[in-house]
């Protein structure tokens, strides 16, 4: 049980005793530590219902509160109940956490399966900034969910089918450079695609592309072979990026995986009256199956949504993104028994997902579907980030530059580090910096990308956090014998050490809240606060120079801080170097 849950259960007992009937109420972490660690507005809410004086009711509740050894409680303002946790209660919890692999994090996801659909770039198109955000946010959410006990299926729903393949196959036949393809497949496919794109106004080229596409869709063996090769080289190229980012997928079921299911799916939608024909196309209209007053799109219209139907089959017989996504939902529910499906995709696809979830519901596919949207990354000019040549910035360029800059900074700070070790550290620091810059932002806000800000050793950065971890570990390197933290007692006297313990104990309370609204930035804030609390503690409380039993107590707190910081960073997908 977390401390917060413990307080809630004590409060429930007191409320039940006071009111004479089973009653529960929420406790929250206090926003301002001057008033205590936790608080509840239960007395105010209940007094209103019962038309009594809230402060008097709060006093009655406090009289019934059994908090011995745990906390003290008092009344504040109009009737808040404030709880102040006793230092010995924090100490006891810290001792327990040192013996707990899960660091006090409850398994809130046990027994539930969640599919996380993230990254999902399109073959032969460069991974752009949107895919960077999706990859980093999605990976972190998958890690957090896994740690909370969910069965997580990370699925890379790559765009490996679609009209672009007419152009790619034409380009493959006319412009492909085999050596370049072997060296950098993604770049070469993109080059070929762009080259065709530039000349597609030529009617001859356009027709040729269309006929390659028709051949591919009809199963022409030669075109299918080219298509397969494109997918294979793209996957290999992407895998290298994911390896570097330490991002793992359980499956890569791209759009093409669902091709066979699409014709039957459209027929089913027509039969069930969920979709109908309009100008030759099969569309899901808001009024397709329900009388108007139940029209789910009415809400959308009031919110300013358009009533464009979702098209699932074009007049020419072709299927669309929405058709594939419906087949994908069915597969995930039927084959994987998914309870939740989280789509980490940019804001521009909001309408697509609203329509998709509505159509799935009418189809009887029930589950908790969430579109986890995010804003854009902006350049210094506050416009969409572009390279000097005016292209969208690719993920690889960003990673490479981050690592290069980290290497320079490390060489300046610590010239002793050389060769392979220095390169390793630069990789960990550079990539950590990119991830943290992303994850410390609210996902819906557009953020301005700044190299200097994200690589600074001071401030809200990954290097600061990684350095904090190195700093804690360096204390243990000075010891003659390994320190057994599970054997230590913890005594908390100084404010700085009480505060550090308070934050450490809160880890298990913070983590589940991240999934309430899918905000890894809450975890980013938490680890920053933890690192700052550690530095204040380390300044105020000598560790190695202290007398026993304080020395062991403080070492144990250092150990717990280092584990919690490392685990928190790991859940953001950020690694920690040994030295830097
Ligand atoms: N390939 C798409 C894009 O790059 C993203 C796919 C997201 N996943 C999904 N199931 N629609 O825009």
Note down, in words, how this protein is organized:
This protein is of the alpha/beta class and about 575 residues long. It folds into four domains: about 5-85, 2-Layer Sandwich (Gyrase A, domain 2), CATH 3.30.1360; about 115-155 and about 250-370, HUPs (Rossmann fold), CATH 3.40.50; about 165-245, no CATH class; about 425-570, Isoleucyl-tRNA Synthetase, Domain 1 (Orthogonal Bundle), CATH 1.10.730.10. It has helices at about 5-20, 40-50, 55-65, 85-100, 130-145, 165-175, 180-185, 185-200, 205-215, 220-245, 260-270, 295-300, 320-335, 350-360, 395-415, 420-440, 450-455, 460-475, 495-515, 520-540, 550-570, and strands spanning about 30, 40, 70-75, 80-85, 115, 150-155, 275-280, 280-285, 310-315, 340-345, 370, 375-380, 445-450. It has a four-stranded antiparallel beta sheet. Strands 6-5-10-11 form a four-stranded parallel beta sheet, with helices on both faces. A hairpin with an 8-residue loop joins β1 (about 30) and β2 (about 40). The longest helix is centred in the middle third of the chain and has 25 residues, at about 220-245. Mean pLDDT is about 90; it is low at about 285-305. The structure holds arginine. Arginine binds near residues 120, 157, 159, 325 and 345.
């Amino acid at each position: 049980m977390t401390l917060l849950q413990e307080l809630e259960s004590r409060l429930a007992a007191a409320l039940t005793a006071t009111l004479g009937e089973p009653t529960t109420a929420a406790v929250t972490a206090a926003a301002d530590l001057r008033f205590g660690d936790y608080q509840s507005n239960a007395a105010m809410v209940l007094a209103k219902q019962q038309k009594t004086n809230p402060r008097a009711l709060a006093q009655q509740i406090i009289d019934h509160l059994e908090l011995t050894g745990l906390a003290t409680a008092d009344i504040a303002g109009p009737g808040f109940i404030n709880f102040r946790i006793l230092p010995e209660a924090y100490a006891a919890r810290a001792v327990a956490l040192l013996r707990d692999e899960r660091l006090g994090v409850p398994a809130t996801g046990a027994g539930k399966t969640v599919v996380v659909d993230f990254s999902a770039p399109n073959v032969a198109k460069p991974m752009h900034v949107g895919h960077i955000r999706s990859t980093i946010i999605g990976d972190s959410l998958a890690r957090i969910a896994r740690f909370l006990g969910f069965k997580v299926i990370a699925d890379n729903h790559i765009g490996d089918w679609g009209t672009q393949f007419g152009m790619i196959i034409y380009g493959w036949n006319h412009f492909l450079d085999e050596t370049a393809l072997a060296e950098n497949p993604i770049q070469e496919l993109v080059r070929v695609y762009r080259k065709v794109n530039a000349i597609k106004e030529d009617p001859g080229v356009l027709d040729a592309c269309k006929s390659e596409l028709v051949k591919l869709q009809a199963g022409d063996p030669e075109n299918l072979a080219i298509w397969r090769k494109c997918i294979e080289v793209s996957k290999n190229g992407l895998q290298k990026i994911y390896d570097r980012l330490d991002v793992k997928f359980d499956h890569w079921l791209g759009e093409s995986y669902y091709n066979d299911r699409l014709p039957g799916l459209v027929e089913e939608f027509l039969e069930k009256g969920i979709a109908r024909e309009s100008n030759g196309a099969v569309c899901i209209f808001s009024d397709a199956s329900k009388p108007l007053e139940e029209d789910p799109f009415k809400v959308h219209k009031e919110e300013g949504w358009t009533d464009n139907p979702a098209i699932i089959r074009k007049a020419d017989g072709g299927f669309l993104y929405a058709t594939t996504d419906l087949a994908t939902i069915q597969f995930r529910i039927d084959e994987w028994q998914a309870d939740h499906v989280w789509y980490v995709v940019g804001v521009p696809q909001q309408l697509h997902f609203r329509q998709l979830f509505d159509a799935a519901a009418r189809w009887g596919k029930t589950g908790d579907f969430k579109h986890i949207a995010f804003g854009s990354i902006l350049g210094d000019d506050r416009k969409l980030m572009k390279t000097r040549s005016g292209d969208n910035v690719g993920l690889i360029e960003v990673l490479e530059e981050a690592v290069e800059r980290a290497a320079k900074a490390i060489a300046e700070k610590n010239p002793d580090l050389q060769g392979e070790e220095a390169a390793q550290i630069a990789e960990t620091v550079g990539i950590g910096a990119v991830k943290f810059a992303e994850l410390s932002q609210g996902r819906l806000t557009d953020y301005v990308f700044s190299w200097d800000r994200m690589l600074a050793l001071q401030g809200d950065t990954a290097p600061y956090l990684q350095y904090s971890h190195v700093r804690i570990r360096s204390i243990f390197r000075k010891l003659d014998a390994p320190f057994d933290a599970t054997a230590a007692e913890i005594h908390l006297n100084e404010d700085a050490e009480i505060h550090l313990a308070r934050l450490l104990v809160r880890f298990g309370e913070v983590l589940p809240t991240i999934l309430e609204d899918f905000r890894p930035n809450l975890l980013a804030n938490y680890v920053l606060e933890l690192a700052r609390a550690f530095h204040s503690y380390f300044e105020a409380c000598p560790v190695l120079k202290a007398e026993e039993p304080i020395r062991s107590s403080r070492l144990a707190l250092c150990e717990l801080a280092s584990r919690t910081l490392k685990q928190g960073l790991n859940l953001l997908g950020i690694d920690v170097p040994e030295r830097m």
